[in-house]
């Protein structure tokens, strides 16, 4: 299969560097109105009344809406959570604007629409929200304590979902294990934080259809929600996703702002525009976990059994895929390790913090931080090098595919990847340096992290399934147009899709146009979700292109008077073997099919367009006789090494070296895939050292800008040494696996491990981000996670 | 449009070209926001914070962005001298040259943010207040009737609070030329963080080169900068990582009993913990003649 | 030049090579004038707090975050956005070419800031000592800064 390799530049790259790409905020329709939300200052409150008269009297204000009225005009948000996990009788629903109770500081309580954004803000400042504050629940303990007020009427104990992932007989094996280590790992609340915030522009067109431009990762998913909530047929709605300034899971549908913006456009018969501020964007969370582990091991460092309790504080319930992530975190144990006796008890709990949307990692980064802490702990307990513990516990290539209760891990060579990354990182030199240097206030620490990254989720029961659809269409200019149900959040995946199609058709990549993100033009799809754009979306397009190629080959053979086996195609020219004297350019060939098809013997019937739906194998959506499900078809992985310098006087951590080896199966465009790894590793740096959404004791968010929610900058991330392996998937057509998330958990875990290593603190509780204050607490020998949780960042 | 006039309009943007006009605007029109650089004002205007929309930009006042040494042992910085200008000018006092290069936010902020703006904002978690106190700088404040000079240590009153009176403008900062060695150390969390502890160390020398006096001004650790005089012998040993000297230095800092500061960058416990170490680093740099 | 009264209600400036006189309240942020009045969209808004750098433009060759700059200050000055960087014949600026070659962007939202800061640095010093200090005002969430560093270090030799 000829995919054109890694040398292909981004399609549209030229437009990007010229600054001509248009994002959501760049559009302002003629005569559009502006929508601003009134957001609660209380984290938890009982609403008495929302008074709009002063706001309505403000010049320029056209409408004000609050929960009481909204509930009669727009349908509820519906959470996509499996009932067997929620234990609720029926789907969980939420009003778009609250009627009785405010659940988090920043919750939209009312909206104001005005002629200008300034007038809308002035109006919003005049809306009076008369609410009685209630004590906020700000952690899992408080939310699950007896008598804690229910945050949703159908979930009196505030546990949204819970479950147990088990394998073998953990209890017996653990009890019999010669040694046991116990520890705790906590990930502070953080979020995906793309640079472009969310926004939505809605209008009604001349045909009476609702036309929506939204910074969304799932235009079809959004359309379905809007149809249901607004009582319109899906075909009366068009959703267009313009080029996104990053997604990372932050822009899945399921929050109220988009349906409400659309509602107001319908009601006011004018285009309505809403774009969120950075402070609003930072209300959303995407991780906040606390895990306790017990691992039984033998004197050789083999982990025999693993027991984990995992709690997730998911903030206020919402209808995005965010709340599902703790289930994924649990299901990803035991990662790539050969542990067959395992139990993970997990809960997703509601509190009075902002709701979750998705984030790169989707829970798997939490799994990784726990497994790597366990392995480091066993290393410290046995005196083995942490690398050796990985060697003894990672699954061998021959053991794959490996079926667990939640995964069928397809293929990989974990040990080879480990060896490669140690080489890249000059691991032995690092250890040598570590043992020789003692002077100064900086201590060198080295950490390793293995990350298993299931990708391509098929979530039966939701609209986000594991298969994707593509149409490929040929024209007489010799160009191909691909209409795909996947979208790119800015990764350039459409370039790889174009490469696949170009390769299949024998065209130059520049002759392929990819259309994505428009529900009127593109087939139904999941958009940008679980790294499937190239793996699944690209394969669907490739299959459709191959259909067309077969027809072109036969037609070329007929037109050139040759045997079909002798037809070759490259760069838009179809030839007989290597004889350029007997050749036809693809444009005239297609014209020939169109004008002569079925009229001339052998010239193929008129098929110049093909639509294919493709889904990988290796999926089990209905539990089998052992109750096992398998919702991820492919399993990418990566291994990381981090070297850090910890300043023992200040707790500052400087990253000296980062190395990573990743394997996402067959690679279509190496540059794009490497770029994904880089970005993921950078997010791991952020999780390990910097990123945290903090709250005051009254539940007010304290990190509402980038001076307080800290993202890594240029000086914080060194050059990442990287390499890749290819272990093709035996279950996908092209051997591809998903690429995009791999690296977040692995690099975070390697950095956390490196910090512990510098302090001789393997096995101590870990609480990310490892801010200087927390590092000093570890240095001081704080061994109780609760105490560590008390340390302000 | 003819001569400059003042106005009682509640909104508008004014760029006066004389100090008199600027002061008239402050005196006449009600709530007014003064713009030095703009890097701190514009975020406030963007948020729902009741910031007056009547803006007076000092950018056009003569000399407001200039650094001058007039020969009587004083370097005068106009209030709107940017960090970038400080970094580039040969006349910039050494301490400020180092400070300017390390300001968070990239060349964009370094070319727009101003010494005067930062001083008037008086954010404890910033570089300028501690450095101005260390330099024994005078802040030149002017109102409609007179100009007065106030020592930096009198100017910074508390977190986000200065001695600037209603109707007054900060017009310049005067830094006396003192001969001696400087060292600066600053602690912040990553490229994005703002200062959590700063230390400006100054060594005065006698004629024969020995150290006659040592002082360290700590910024960012407390509500206002705090200066500690350090016995020269202790300073040398602390800079050399002598553990008992380090303890001695920490004790001196403790004895100054500053009002330790807590914000989202770091809490008081942490700042108190690291203040001595950062002071020692600044001393080390001053002693080694390697001020940054 | 702006008008001679102290109230700035009109600004004459050159933006991307075009001389303009704008009737504007001088206190408006430059980013809003560029985007809303002049339809120059390559300058993006990511935070309105001076942190992310997505709104960076060059004013008389100096990189500034346009969400922080009063438009009243740019009278008589030359403003450059990313869209104005290419040659009159449409040829890409060498720095644009390097970014494209190196794949130094993904979603592109931060691109203008990174390119313009690189251009500004190279104009001042064709062989700059520390290019990463020139870019520490620009956040990127996609690339981990890796390919940006490649492009930026290749740029001086390409820039000739």
Task: Write up this protein.
The complex is a heterotrimer of chains A (793), B (292) and C (160). Chain A is α+β, with helices and mostly antiparallel strands and 793 residues long. Chain A is 28% helix and 25% strand. Among the domains of chain A are: 365-371 and 384-457 and 628-790, Aldehyde oxidase/xanthine dehydrogenase, molybdopterin binding domain (Aldehyde Oxidoreductase, domain 4, 2-Layer Sandwich); 467-614, Aldehyde oxidase/xanthine dehydrogenase, molybdopterin binding domain (Aldehyde Oxidoreductase, domain 4, 2-Layer Sandwich). Chain A is globular and about 85 Å long. In chain B, 32% of the residues lie in helices and 24% in strands. Chain B has a 5-stranded antiparallel sheet with strand order 4-5-10-6-7. A 4-stranded antiparallel sheet of chain B has the order 11-12-13-14, with helices on both faces. In chain B, strand 8 and strand 9 (161-162) form a beta hairpin. Chain B is globular. The termini of chain B are far apart. Mean pLDDT of chain B is 93; it is low at 1-5. With 160 residues, chain C is of the alpha+beta class. Chain C folds into 2 domains: 10-82, Beta-grasp domain (Ubiquitin-like (UB roll), Roll); 94-159, [2Fe-2S]-binding domain (DNA polymerase, domain 1, Orthogonal Bundle), CATH 1.10.150. Chain C has 5 helices and 5 strands. The relative contact order of chain C is 0.16. The model of chain C has no long low-confidence stretch (mean pLDDT 93).
Structural class of chain C, by secondary structure, is: alpha+beta
**Biggest interface and which pair forms it?**
A-C, 51 and 50 residues
Query: Could you say what the CATH topology of one domain in chain A is called?
Result: Aldehyde Oxidoreductase, domain 4
Tell me the series of helices and strands of chain C, N- to C-terminal.
EEHEEEHHHH
CATH topology of the largest domain in chain C: Ubiquitin-like (UB roll)
Helical coverage of chain C, percent range:
25-40%
Cα radius of gyration of chain A in angstroms: 27 Å
| Extended strand count of chain A | 31
Helix/strand layout:
The complex is a heterotrimer of chains A (793), B (292) and C (160).
Chain A: H1 13-17, E1 33-39, E2 45-51, H2 53-57, E3 61-66, H3 67-70, E4 77-78, H4 83-86, E5 93-94, E6 101-102, E7 108-114, H5 117-126, E8 128-133, H6 140-144, E9 159-167, H7 170-176, E10 179-190, E11 199-204, E12 210-214, H8 219-230, E13 237-240, H9 257-268, E14 272-275, H10 278-281, E15 287-297, E16 303-313, H11 325-331, E17 342-349, H12 364-382, H13 386-393, E18 402-403, E19 408-409, H14 414-424, H15 427-436, E20 442-455, E21 468-474, E22 480-484, H16 493-505, E23 512-516, H17 533-560, E24 567-570, E25 573-576, E26 579-585, H18 586-596, E27 609-614, E28 634-647, E29 653-663, H19 670-690, E30 720-725, H20 744-759, E31 766-768, H21 772-779, H22 785-790
Parallel strand pairs in A: 1-14, 10-31, 12-13, 16-17, 22-23, 29-30
Antiparallel strand pairs in A: 1-7, 2-6, 2-8, 3-7, 4-5, 9-17, 10-15, 11-12, 11-14, 15-16, 18-19, 20-28, 21-22, 21-27, 24-25, 25-26, 28-29
Helix pairs in contact in A: 8-9, 11-12, 12-13, 12-20, 16-17, 17-18, 19-20
Chain B: E1 12-14, H1 19-28, E2 33-35, H2 41-46, E3 54-57, E4 67-69, E5 74-78, H3 83-88, H4 94-101, H5 106-110, H6 115-121, H7 128-134, E6 138-142, E7 147-151, H8 152-155, E8 156-158, E9 161-162, E10 169-176, E11 181-187, E12 197-205, E13 211-219, E14 226-230, H9 232-239, H10 243-255, H11 268-287
Helix pairs in contact in B: 9-10, 9-11, 10-11
Chain C: E1 10-15, E2 18-23, H1 30-37, E3 56-59, E4 62-65, E5 78-80, H2 94-102, H3 111-124, H4 131-134, H5 146-159
Parallel strand pairs in C: 1-5
Antiparallel strand pairs in C: 1-2, 3-4, 3-5
